[in-house]
Each structure stands twice: as structure tokens, then as C-alpha cells.
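Lecture 7 notes: from sequence to structure.

We start with a single chain of 361 residues. Read the sequence below before looking at the structure.
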Amino acid sequence: MYVAVKGGERAIDNAHAWQAEERRGDPAVAELALAQIREQLALAVNRVMAEGSLYDPDLAALAIKQARGDLIEAIFLIRAYRTTLPRLGASRPVATAQMAVIRRISATFKDLPGGQVLGPTFDYTHRLLDFKLAAEGAPVPVAATAPASLADVPHVMAFLNRDGLIEAEPAGDASPPDLTREPMELPASRALRLQAITRGDEGFILALAYSTQRGYGRTHAFVGELRIGCVAVELDIPELGFPVEIGEVELSECETVNQFTGSKTEPPQFTRGYGLVFGQSERKAISMSLVDRSLRWKELGEDCTGAPAQDEEFVLMHADNIQATGFLEHIKLPHYVDFQSELELVRKLRAEVLAAQEAAQ
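Now the structure, written as C-alpha cells:
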């Protein structure tokens, strides 16, 4: 044990120096600026902000650079920094119906009031490598689309709701719990579940959502509306007596329409799934809405089929990639004593088996 520890501090310092050297890469290649990461790797920045629970594109870009592109490590850095910040107040709920949309589509209504806005998306590309991007100083194509709409854009679900075909908007908590300040408690309210899912690992939530589409759960979803854009953040100032806009954030919001044949407590109708994520993170928002709907089986009076996406504890306790990473990577730490005890146990058991075999002969 002493040999393993001796010189450890110097070895760690050297490891840090080597890491910094690897992060910088070839000095002959220009160093990445934070503005380049923020502007040209915006989707990675958005994911770090969403799962790090901190909306700050510059800090997210810094974390990505520091982590050498390891997004989970960058999320860890952002969350660690977030814990050092003072809590100055709580903003009002954002009004997504007043979102300045840059993208808005629906898979359920062709002719939307306000129109379908394709926006910036990979959906209609051929998924072929564009070698023009490898050219230094390649010209940037000019978008032919209109700027974000500033008019109120009502949600598609309201049109279904006028005919009474979809469940009423589920009531939210008057004072929802804050997952960043209070430990997870089960059973969890929907507000707490949504917080956990929006902070959860995108790949994990995507896999759960995919499992519901393959039959592991009673969901058959349509994208009622997916919208991406900026919303104002307002804070109530007691001394003023009215809210003040302190900034704006970019959000992805998805509402799904799900088939529902009714239960003992609810009539046949369409039901809702909901997703809301920082930045342009539409895959995460859609996945979140599918998992949200799957977890609502109890409140809708449905039978549980035992699907993973219906298991609240399984979903919420394994969605957080920072917790998962910490528990996974702790096995890299020294476990010499534990291993020696297990090694002795296995040797003892093998000796007993061999002795028994020899006696039987």
C-alpha cells in the first residue's frame, strides 16, 4: 500500500500537465476560441446547458473546451460551478405561447395557424459528408428563411382541447420542488419527474423513449407540436410591484398526443406528454415527452405492463449521467484491501472444492 501511495502527488501533477498538453493538441494548429465553440458547436453547448441545469452558453463552451469535448465531463464541470452561485430569486414560469419561434412543426395538423416553420434542422439533409466544410474559409450559405416570429403563437393542443378530445392540462404544483436543492423522493410528483428527465442523459432518455415505441409500454405518440425559439425570463421585483424582464433563453418544447382508450377513472380521449429543454435540443424534448407520458400510467388509471419506461424508480434513479459516471468510475480507485479479501475467499473456496474432488476419488 505504501509503495502505491509514495510519490502520488507528483504523479497526479504530471497527469494534470499531460492532460493540459493533450487538450491543447498540436501547437502548430490554431487554438479553439470559446466563441467558436459557442457559435459552431451550438448543439453540444445546448446539451451541456440542459443537463448541467445552467443556461450560460459561454460557460458551457468553456466546459467543453476544458473537457476536451467530453460532454459528460463538461456537464459535471457546469453542475459543480452552479453549486457555487447564489440564489437571487425565482423567475416567473416562461410563457412558451409567446415564444419567438425559429422552428415549429406538427405531425398532427398540416395547416397550423401561424404556419409550419421548418427552421434550422438536419431533417431534410442527405446525411452525406460535406467536404466543402473541410475547406478553409468556405463561404457560408445565406438563409432564405424569415427571422423568428414575434407574434403570439398558440399551442396546437388548444385546438384539440376545444373539441374536448384531449385531456385537460394536468394541474401543476403550486410550489414545485427543486431537484437541485432537495433530494429525490419517491413516489415523485410530475414536476419532479420532469426536472429529472430534462437533466437526464440524452442517450438514456432516448433509449427509453425508443423502447416505448417498440411496445414496452402503452404509448403510441404523435408529435402534436415541436417548437424551438426564445422566451423572455421575468422576475418579480417586490419594490416595483411588477415583473421585470431580465433576459431570454432559447428552449425546445414538445407536446405529444397519445392514444388512450380509457380506464376505470378516465374516458377515452387523447392524452399528453411534455418535454422542455434548454437550447435547440429537439431529440431530447421529444424523448422526454414520450417518457413523461409513459410514467403517467398510474394517474391515468392504466395497467402497468412492467416496461422499464413505466418504472418510476428505474427511470429517475438511473437517468442522471453525473451520478452514473461517479458510481461507475469509482471502481478505478484503489480497492486493494477489498480485492485481497475476495482473492483469499476464492482461493479458500477453490481449495475446498479440490479437496472434495480428491476425497471423492
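Residues 96-136+143-319 form one domain. Keep this in mind for problem set 3.
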